[in-house]
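Field log, afternoon session.

UNIT: design team B
ACTIVITY: writing a sequence onto a fixed backbone
BACKBONE:
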C-alpha cells in the first residue's frame, strides 16, 4: 500500500489545492509514483475523465502535476451547489442525486464506503498519495459527519501539514486554534506552512518561533505572496483576476461573473496570451465596450439567467450584440442565449418554462440524464460566420461535455465524436453529433475546454484584433507547455521555501 501525506488548511482558499499540485510535481520529478486524492470536494469546477466520470477540476490539475491520468478514484465525492435544491452529489463520477444538508449527513456511511474504496484502489496503483482536506479540520459542528479531513488522515495513517493564509489575517490564531480544537487528532498535524506573506520576513520570525513553542510544531516555510500565477483554482475566481491587471493589452474579453459560475477555468488559457486582457465582470460599461463577451457555464442556468434579466445585464448583452460585439456562450451560457429553456421535471429550478435571451435559434430541455464525456470536434462551415476558418489543422478540437440539457434547433457549429462516455448516456460512441449554434456575432457550444485548443483560441483572438483594425498574430502560444512551465515554477518556489527534507522524512519507507 502507498504511503500518504495530507495537506489541510485553516480554512477554505488558503492554497491547499496548489500545495498538493506542487508537491505532486516535486515527488514526480524525484521519480516517485505519486497521485493526488481528495475524498470529498465541493466545487463548481469539474473535469471529465477518460472513462466519462466527473471529478473536481483541481484533482485533474493535480493529476497533471503528478503526470498521471486523472481518475474518479482521486475524487470519489463531488458536491455541486445548485441553490435552493441543495447540492448535486456526484458519487464515483456519476450523478447520485440532489440532497439538502441533512440528507447528506444521513448519507455519510455510504459516502465513507465510497471514499475508502476509492482510496484503496488508488493506493494499490501508486507509491505515494498526497491527500487534500477541505475547509478546516476544526469545524467542530461537523466532526462526527466529515469524511474528508481527520477521519481520512486516520484511515490512511497520513501525517498532516497545516496551511494558513497570512494574507487573510489572523494566521497564528488560526493555526493555534486549529490545534486546540482538534483534541486527539491534533497529534496528526506535524508542521505548519504559512502562505501568501508580503513584506520583511524578519518581522515575522518572532511569531514563527512563538507558534512553534506554543504548539510544539515547526513552521516548515513561509511562501511569499505571488499574485495570480494562472494555475487552476478550486474555490473561486482569484481576487487578483477580478482586477484590471492587463489594461494595456489591446484585446479585452469580458467573462460574466455569474453567481453560480462553473468551470471558470475554461478561460485560463487567455491569461497566458500577451495581447488579451480578460475581465470577470457584470458591469454594463464593461460588457458594452468589450471586444468579446463570454457567458460561462452555470450550475443553475435559470436562476443566473433570471438575475441577468432582472438586473438589466441581459439588456446590456443585447445592446452589445446589436453593436456586433461577439457574444459566446459556453454550456449554461449557450443555453441562456437560446429562445426557450424547458424544465418539465424541475431539474434545475422551480420554473418549468423560461424565455431565453433569444439571440440563438435553439431551445433547451433539461432532463435528469447528465452527459459527461470527452469529445473530439470539428468546426463546420457555419463557423466562418463568426470569423473562424474550417481548415482541418485549425479546427481539430478537443474538449469535454458536462450538462443535463438537450439543445435543438439551428445546431450546426461543430460536429463531434464522444471519445469517453458516461454509461448513463445512451448515444453510441461511434455516433457523430452536431453541437453549437451561431447567429450574427453570437455563438454558443457545450464544449468545455474549447479555448485550450491553441489554434482555435488564436483564431478567436485574431478575429477580435481584426475587428479593431489590428494585424493578426501568427505566433501561437502553447497553452499546455505554458501551464506545465508554471507548474514547474510553482514547484521550484516550494523547494526554495519549504523544508523538503522534513517532508520527505515524513513519507519515507
Amino acid at each position: 500500500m502507498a504511503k500518504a501525506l495530507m495537506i489541510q488548511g485553516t480554512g477554505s482558499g488558503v492554497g491547499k489545492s496548489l500545495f498538493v499540485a506542487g508537491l505532486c510535481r516535486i515527488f514526480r520529478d524525484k521519480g516517485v509514483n505519486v497521485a493526488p486524492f481528495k475524498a470529498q470536494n465541493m466545487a463548481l469546477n469539474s473535469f471529465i475523465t477518460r472513462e466519462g466520470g466527473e471529478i473536481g477540476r483541481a484533482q485533474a490539475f493535480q493529476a497533471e502535476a503528478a503526470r498521471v491520468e486523472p481518475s474518479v478514484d482521486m475524487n470519489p465525492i463531488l458536491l455541486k451547489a445548485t441553490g435552493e435544491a441543495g447540492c448535486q452529489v456526484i458519487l464515483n463520477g456519476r450523478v447520485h442525486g440532489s440532497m439538502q444538508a441533512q440528507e447528506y449527513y444521513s448519507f455519510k456511511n455510504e459516502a465513507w464506503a465510497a471514499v475508502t474504496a476509492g482510496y484503496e484502489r488508488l493506493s494499490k496503483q501508486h507509491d505515494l498519495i498526497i491527500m487534500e482536506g477541505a475547509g478546516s479540520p476544526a469545524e467542530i459542528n461537523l466532526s462526527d459527519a466529515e469524511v474528508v479531513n481527520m477521519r481520512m488522515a486516520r484511515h490512511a495513517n497520513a501525517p498532516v501539514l497545516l496551511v494558513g493564509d497570512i494574507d487573510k489575517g489572523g494566521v497564528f490564531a488560526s493555526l493555534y486554534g486549529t490545534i486546540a480544537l482538534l483534541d486527539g487528532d491534533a497529534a496528526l498535524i506535524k508542521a505548519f506552512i504559512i502562505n501568501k506573506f508580503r513584506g520583511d520576513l524578519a518581522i515575522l520570525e518572532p511569531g514563527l518561533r512563538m507558534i512553534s513553542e506554543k504548539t510544539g510544531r515547526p513552521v516548515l516555510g513561509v511562501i511569499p505572496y505571488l499574485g495570480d500565477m494562472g494555475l487552476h483554482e478550486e474555490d473561486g475566481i482569484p481576487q487578483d483576476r477580478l482586477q484590471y491587471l492587463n489594461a494595456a493589452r489591446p484585446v479585452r474579453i469580458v467573462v460574466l461573473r455569474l453567481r453560480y459560475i462553473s468551470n471558470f477555468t475554461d478561460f485560463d488559457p487567455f491569461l497566458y496570451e500577451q495581447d488579451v486582457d480578460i475581465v470577470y465582470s457584470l458591469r454594463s460599461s464593461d460588457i458594452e465596450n468589450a471586444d468579446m463577451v463570454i457567458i460561462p457555464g452555470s450550475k443553475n442556468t435559470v436562476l443566473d439567467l433570471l438575475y441577468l434579466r432582472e438586473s438589466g445585464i441581459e439588456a446590456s448583452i443585447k445592446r452589445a450584440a446589436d453593436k456586433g460585439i461577439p457574444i459566446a456562450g459556453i454550456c449554461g451560457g449557450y443555453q441562456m442565449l437560446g429562445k426557450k429553456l424547458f424544465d418539465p421535471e424541475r431539474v434545475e429550478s422551480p420554473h418549468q418554462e423560461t424565455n431565453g435571451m433569444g439571440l440563438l435559434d435553439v431551445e433547451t430541455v433539461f432532463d435528469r440524464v447528465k452527459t459527461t464525456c470527452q469529445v473530439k470536434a470539428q468546426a463546420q462551415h457555419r463557423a466562418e460566420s463568426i470569423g473562424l476558418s474550417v481548415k482541418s489543422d485549425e479546427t481539430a478540437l478537443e474538449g469535454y461535455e458536462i450538462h443535463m440539457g438537450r439543445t435543438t434547433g439551428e445546431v450546426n457549429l461543430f460536429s463531434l465524436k464522444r471519445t469517453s462516455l458516461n454509461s448513463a448516456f445512451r448515444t453510441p460512441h461511434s455516433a457523430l453529433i452536431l453541437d453549437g449554434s451561431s447567429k450574427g456575432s453570437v455563438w454558443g457550444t457545450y464544449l468545455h475546454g474549447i479555448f485550450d485548443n491553441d489554434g482555435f483560441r488564436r483564431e478567436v483572438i485574431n478575429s477580435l484584433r481584426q475587428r479593431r483594425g489590428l494585424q493578426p498574430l501568427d505566433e501561437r502560444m502553447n497553452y499546455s507547455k505554458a501551464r506545465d512551465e508554471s507548474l514547474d515554477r510553482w514547484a521550484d518556489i516550494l523547494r526554495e521555501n519549504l523544508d523538503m527534507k522534513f517532508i520527505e522524512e515524513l513519507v519515507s519507507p
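LOG NOTE: The CA atoms of residues 73 and 117 lie 8 Å apart.
NEXT ACTIVITY: expression trials, pending approval
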